[in-house]
Design a protein that fits this description.
This protein starts with a helix and ends in a 20-residue tail after the last helix. It has six helices and three strands. The chain has a single domain, classed as Winged helix-like DNA-binding domain superfamily/Winged helix DNA-binding domain (Arc Repressor Mutant, subunit A, Orthogonal Bundle), CATH 1.10.10. It is mainly α and 167 residues long.
Length: 167
């Protein structure tokens, strides 16, 4: 079976984008874990909390953002809490909700991991691209992410779920 030219090109383009993102994400996550001991999902959780005002979010909102079922995310937070990276606190605006927030230790570990992330991203991405290419890549990937974010659906009616670390 052969694809029409435009469809084949899009299949290749999307495949390359996904493959490149996967290699980049796995490589950076491995560098962070090797240097800091923080597994990738722990790093992603700490980054999301760090970028949130007050460094706290409701548990169910965090689970949605990292594409984890609530029970799996709860176990992830249990492990992070045992390492003093995050803590659960009551949500004073909703008695049924629980917030997760970073601890001082979690913020310290995150800052170390962010330095490793910066070095790894430089070596794995920025060393191969010009400043103009990096700016274009950011604009293009932000546009793709926003067009496919949760709540936006495809022509088939399927809604997407974002999993990026970007702000």
């Amino acid at each position: 079976m052969s694809f029409p030219r435009q469809q084949r090109d899009l299949v290749t383009t999307v495949g390359l984008l996904v493959e490149a993102a996967s290699y980049l994400q796995r490589g950076i996550a491995a560098d962070i874990e090797d240097e800091t001991g923080l597994p990738g999902m722990w790093f992603e959780t700490l980054v999301r909390l760090h970028r949130t005002p007050g460094h706290r979010l409701r548990m169910n909102e965090m689970a949605t953002q990292v594409s984890f079922p609530p029970s799996s995310f709860s176990r992830l937070i249990d492990r992070m809490e045992a390492r003093d990276l995050v803590e659960r606190v009551p949500d004073l605006t909703n008695r049924r909700a629980t917030l997760v927030q970073t601890t001082t230790s979690g913020e310290t570990r995150l800052l170390k991991a962010l330095a490793v992330h910066e070095q790894s991203a430089q070596a794995r991405l920025a060393d191969f691209l010009s400043e103009d290419e990096i700016e274009a890549l950011e604009a293009i990937t932000r546009k793709i992410r926003d067009a496919n974010a949760a709540g936006h659906s495809s022509p088939s009616g399927n809604a997407a779920t974002p999993t990026s670390l970007a702000g």
